[in-house]
Amino acid sequence: PLVSMRELLDHAAANGYGIPAFNVNNLEQVQAVMEAAKEVDAPVILQASAGARKYAGEPFVKHLIQAALEAYPSIPLVMHQDHGQSPDVCQGAINLGFSSVMMDGSLEADGKTIASYDYNVDVTRKVVDLAHKVGVTVEGELGCLGSLETMKGDKEDGHGTEATMTREQLLTDPEQAADFVKKTQLDALAIAIGTSHGAYKFSRKPTGDILAIDRIKEIHRRIPNTHLVMHGSSSVPQDLLAIINQYGGKMKETYGVPVEEIQEAIKYGVRKINIDTDIRLAMTGAVRKFLAENPDKFDMREWMKPAREAAKKICKQRYIEFGCEGQG
Ligand code: G3H
Ligand code: 13P
Ligand code: NA
Ligand code: ZN
């Protein structure tokens, strides 16, 4: 059934686990997540970005998720809008039937300009007002996602700002987080700790100076009852990069967020972990491999099938690693 995000996150907090929130854009990704959840009995957060809504079109996004509900009626499922850039966008998602929305007020509505704190409070508060009236959960974001190696935002992937930032802008401040939660009354807070979207997060396996898990502990100490959200949480597995490059891909050396760091974060209030890139890498590797090995094939179902399998495998792995097994 369609459930509220708040309900899922409260349960995760009470039972000490985290829930991966997977970005979906098409049929095969939705099927992969649902099948993985079914196999391990996990709850599901399917999230759609503005890019997903543009790619598939709103009716298709809506009905793909409706189809998932119909095909898997016993799995608790949240339909979440990822990175809403304005209260209007969030209202649109609610009208479309989303049970949870993210108001990303860390940037202004252009998605580029770093927003003032007051702007962020204002737009997030507005969305909480309109969403809570109809039982919809709200995620906000405080602090700008970006790299503590380059001090740059994650514009490379088409998201966020390319501005050079200070360490303080790139790390959520615990005191400000407490004030933000109090003023907005949001349900979940996305924090900045040095992760960024896409495949190119770190030039080496991250250590505490560039992936600030300690900052999560400080934030959690200050606001122990707020559900925390980690964006840019793909682990960018080296074996997936290797498959892509073995079959004609040209991805540069790069590192993601190690699963053991996420597991540590889950001990300190992180309940929602956003993952998109790992699914992309898994599917791309599988398609490259299949087509390289079967150059005579042209039925897309034949190459989409291994891609869907690869996506399912990574989703299932994350469900187990984050402690979701049996929580569905
Ligand atoms: O927010 C980031 C997700 O990876 C969505 O990416 O905007 O390319 O759909 P997208
Ligand atoms: P990744 O690019 O690390 O998968 O992050 C996805 C994300 O944060 C979506 O909001
Ligand atoms: Na989100
Ligand atoms: Zn994100």
TrEMBL record:
<feature type="binding site">
    <location>
        <position position="141"/>
    </location>
    <ligand>
        <name>Zn(2+) 2</name>
    </ligand>
</feature>
<feature type="binding site">
    <location>
        <position position="104"/>
    </location>
    <ligand>
        <name>Zn(2+) 2</name>
    </ligand>
</feature>
<protein>
    <recommendedName>
        <fullName>Fructose-1,6-bisphosphate aldolase</fullName>
        <ecNumber>4.1.2.13</ecNumber>
    </recommendedName>
</protein>
<dbReference type="GO" id="GO:0008270">
    <property type="term" value="F:zinc ion binding"/>
</dbReference>
<keyword id="KW-0324">Glycolysis</keyword>
<feature type="active site" description="Proton donor">
    <location>
        <position position="82"/>
    </location>
</feature>
<comment type="similarity">
    <text>Belongs to the class II fructose-bisphosphate aldolase family.</text>
</comment>
<dbReference type="InterPro" id="IPR000771">
    <property type="entry name" value="FBA_II"/>
</dbReference>
<dbReference type="InterPro" id="IPR013785">
    <property type="entry name" value="Aldolase_TIM"/>
</dbReference>
<feature type="binding site">
    <location>
        <begin position="274"/>
        <end position="277"/>
    </location>
    <ligand>
        <name>dihydroxyacetone phosphate</name>
    </ligand>
</feature>
<dbReference type="Pfam" id="PF01116">
    <property type="entry name" value="F_bP_aldolase"/>
</dbReference>
<keyword id="KW-0456">Lyase</keyword>
<feature type="binding site">
    <location>
        <position position="83"/>
    </location>
    <ligand>
        <name>Zn(2+) 1</name>
    </ligand>
</feature>
<feature type="binding site">
    <location>
        <position position="231"/>
    </location>
    <ligand>
        <name>Zn(2+) 1</name>
    </ligand>
</feature>
<dbReference type="InterPro" id="IPR006412">
    <property type="entry name" value="Fruct_bisP_Calv"/>
</dbReference>
<keyword id="KW-0479">Metal-binding</keyword>
<comment type="function">
    <text>Catalyzes the aldol condensation of dihydroxyacetone phosphate (DHAP or glycerone-phosphate) with glyceraldehyde 3-phosphate (G3P) to form fructose 1,6-bisphosphate (FBP) in gluconeogenesis and the reverse reaction in glycolysis.</text>
</comment>
<keyword id="KW-0862">Zinc</keyword>
<dbReference type="InterPro" id="IPR050246">
    <property type="entry name" value="Class_II_FBP_aldolase"/>
</dbReference>
<feature type="binding site">
    <location>
        <position position="197"/>
    </location>
    <ligand>
        <name>Zn(2+) 1</name>
    </ligand>
</feature>
<feature type="binding site">
    <location>
        <position position="198"/>
    </location>
    <ligand>
        <name>dihydroxyacetone phosphate</name>
    </ligand>
</feature>
<dbReference type="GO" id="GO:0006096">
    <property type="term" value="P:glycolytic process"/>
</dbReference>
<comment type="pathway">
    <text>Carbohydrate degradation; glycolysis; D-glyceraldehyde 3-phosphate and glycerone phosphate from D-glucose: step 4/4.</text>
</comment>
<feature type="binding site">
    <location>
        <begin position="232"/>
        <end position="234"/>
    </location>
    <ligand>
        <name>dihydroxyacetone phosphate</name>
    </ligand>
</feature>
<dbReference type="GO" id="GO:0004332">
    <property type="term" value="F:fructose-bisphosphate aldolase activity"/>
</dbReference>
